[in-house]
Amino acid sequence: MKKILFLFSFSIVSILAACSTSKSDSDENWTPEKPIEFVAPGGAGGGWDTTARMSAKVFKEEGIIKKDIGVINKTGGGGAVGWAYIAEKAGNPHHLFIASPPLIDVPLNGQSQYDHTDFTPIANVIADYGAFVVRSDAKWKNLNDLFTDMKKDPAKITVIGSSSPGSMDHIQFVKIAKEAGVDITKIKYISEQDGGELTALLNGSADVFSTGVAETIEQVKAGKIKVLAVTSEERLKGDVISEYPTVKEQGIDSSFVNWRGFFGPSNLDERAVEYYVSKFKELNQSEAWKEIRNKYGWDELFMSGEEYKAFLDEQREEAKDLLDELGLAKK
Q1: Which of 13, 59, 249, 276 is found 20 to 30 A from 302 (Cα to Cα)?
Q2: Whole-model pTM?
Q3: Given the DSSP bridges, would you call strands 120-135 and 225-230 parallel, antiparallel or unpaired?
Q4: DSSP-assigned letters across all residues of 197-231
């Protein structure tokens, strides 16, 4: 009789333990309860917008994320408007945003109260690169020709970019120029954020356009511009862009990566972070995403967790040193 009671008691305890384990497992698995919003803190067609929309497209078409994903644009302040919008969503796991070096540069130069430490890093998804462009009839045949003239009189040559002074298009150019021996404190940089950069280059208002690789392809095909250099470590693969020489192959030991990744609001539940990291890993490994990367000339640069956080902190220190030298870092 005692044996029967023991077995019965053991069975009840086992069942309760199993139920408890099942409930615990269920509690540990988070999934979205409503549609997800991806925020692009810039205009339609830009790098943030394209990366967010292509990510959402692959997530849906490959069935990686079941819930609908909408992409919205929050423009202004070089990204600051979008960051302020996300900052108000603290703890809400249904809002993510795409970011890149301006999330570090813009706060450092005092144009935003929010920086990368105010958000939850999820995963970096791609590496894009800068391109230094001149008119097709410009006298400079390569980057060293340009820098030879800039060493003589940096202020005589006008560099234009879409980013504000002290942000990405400016920083990527001065980083390379500094390594080449140009006095970066005397470089004349103009910010044009209304889409007139190429017009300014072609009509002679600017001499050099610091931009992204993807923005050069159609104009190179049309014969209007030439690319003096790209900031990748090695030559890029793809139609047209494979012809672009790198900074390094021209004897200048420097590079610049336009990393691009996703962040969430602050105070996210760790289960939600784990969910998104796993989904972005699936995205990164999918053939559909590889095709997207090839189409836009993006490289693979997947990071998450502590690796991503450490990378961002290193990027901040590097950017701060340059901004300090330029006199653009906030005091």
Answers
A1: 249
A2: 0.86
A3: antiparallel
A4: HHHHHHTTS-SEEEEEGGGTHHHHHTTSEEEEEE-
